[in-house]
Specification:
Length: 444
């Protein structure tokens, strides 16, 4: 069956290009059961929602109480690559769940495997409730809509307010000032660093490249993908951090280790480039520093600019196997835009909502760890509104795995040139992997 809807920019067929070569289903959402809603069934609609978020069933219970004709059962799953693999397997068997929690970077992989349905016709004016950059992550730059944004992870700059004051350090507004502050911190406290460059979580580096204007994957109307992980913007980011590591003013230790926790807790790391969810990490990683941190906007590449990247975040999609796409989309929209649902997501699931109206109000109380910054969420909302759209592709896992290996070696070597070559390695292996999978692909 031919696709019935022509896309203005990038078609669904473009996103699916290469799927046939992979031995995947060639059936598009418009040809499957997702458009066959509950009209043909008797009795209430029952939907299954795969999610890894804690307490999501408590939020679904609010919906179920008010909507007895459309009940949602949450099935707890693992996150990351595990749920993606499981979903692709379920799709091949024709029994994917109705609703899916999907990380933004996983969307192209699931779309290229025909797991996610286009729910544009059920979305109404939903777009107006999200920042443009976040909305771009669920449309993949097309006229289609593959999910409703759920939570956001805008990048910010966290710093020890007490130590900055003690040592006369300046909160950087640009990356040039960041480098100057790193040098000043190293000089003022020889046994400490401003922060570290970590190779064990590619999401942070991806967010920094996103802020700089990096477009790692793009796809044209003819279905040809372009891989540009080593584009000029990302080279700038890699060279900047590699230069600071080589200079010895930024640490080269990975995050999330006992040593990293100790550095945060003892103040031998004076700052951390992280996302809006950082307070929850600091509670356990640096318990002795409560009330000593502040958050500020991410430094900019040019003075006067106002843009950030993102680190993490997920959305709610509807599978192409669902026989109740309209009902599923109705729940996904309610879950991520209704005030009561947003309040429950914050309280029960501990997320930072993607919907702009969920980023303010009484439900978002100042994090206890940041009791000295009453405007924490006001500032966070302003920063979130400046999130640039990310450009993800169908083999993010390959890029991320290669990043951890190549940049792990570069950080240990403490050589800026090796940061540059590590980025080239990520580019080369990601490109080669897409060719091997059967995608029509070129390099930027």
């Amino acid at each position: 069956m031919k696709m019935s809807i022509n896309r203005r920019q990038i078609s669904r067929r473009s996103i699916l290009a290469g799927a046939a070569a992979l031995g995947l289903t060639g059936t598009l959402a418009a040809c499957g059961g997702s458009d066959d809603d509950s009209g043909g069934d008797s009795g209430p609609v029952k939907l299954t929602y795969w999610s890894w978020a804690p307490n999501m069933e408590k939020v679904a219970a609010i919906w179920n109480k008010k909507n007895p004709d459309i009940t949602v059962t949450v099935s707890k799953q693992a996150s990351g690559g595990e749920i993606v693999s499981k979903l692709i397997t379920a799709k091949k068997a024709g029994n994917a769940p109705d609703l899916i929690q999907v990380e933004y970077q996983s969307l192209p992989t699931l779309v290229s495997n025909d797991v996610l349905a286009d729910i544009t016709k059920y979305a109404g004016d939903t777009k107006s409730q999200f920042a443009e950059g976040l909305w771009g992550m669920v449309t993949l730059g097309t006229d289609a809509l593959y999910a409703i944004p759920q939570d956001a992870g805008p990048l910010m700059f966290y710093y020890r307010e007490d130590l900055f004051k003690k040592h006369g350090l300046t909160v950087p507004k640009t990356w040039t000032e960041f480098a100057e502050t790193a040098r000043a911190a190293r000089k003022a406290v020889p046994d400490a660093y401003l922060t570290t460059f970590s190779s064990n979580d590619p999401g942070l580096f991806a967010g920094l490249a996103q802020q700089a204007g990096g477009k790692w994957w793009t796809v044209g109307s003819g279905g040809k993908w372009t891989v540009g992980i080593d584009d000029a913007a990302t080279k700038q980011v890699a060279g900047f951090w590699g230069g600071l590591v080589q200079e010895g003013v930024i640490d080269n230790q990975p995050m999330y280790t006992p040593a990293w926790n100790n550095a945060l807790n003892k103040g031998t790391h004076l700052a951390w480039v992280s996302a809006v969810w950082a307070p929850g990490v600091l509670v356990s990683s640096a318990p002795d520093t409560k009330g000593k941190w502040r958050m500020a906007p991410l430094p900019q590449w040019k003075s006067g600019e106002n843009v950030t990247g993102s680190w993490g975040g997920s959305s709610t999609g509807v599978s192409t196997d669902s026989r109740h796409a309209e009902a599923a989309a109705k729940f996904a929209t309610w879950l991520n835009t209704d005030p009561e649902a947003l309040a429950a997501l914050v309280k029960e699931v501990a997320i930072y909502p993607a919907a702009t109206k969920g980023q303010s109000g009484d439900v978002l109380t100042t994090p206890e760890f940041f009791s000295n910054q009453a405007d924490f969420y006001t500032t966070a909302g302003q920063i979130a509104a400046t999130t640039a759209a990310a450009a993800w592709g169908p083999n993010v896992n390959t890029a991320y795995t290669t990043f951890q290996d190549a940049f792990g070696k570069a950080t240990k070597a403490k050589k800026e040139a090796q940061f540059d070559s590590a980025l080239a390695t990520v580019q080369a292996k990601t490109f080669a992997d897409m060719k091997k999978q059967g995608f029509e692909v070129t390099e930027a």
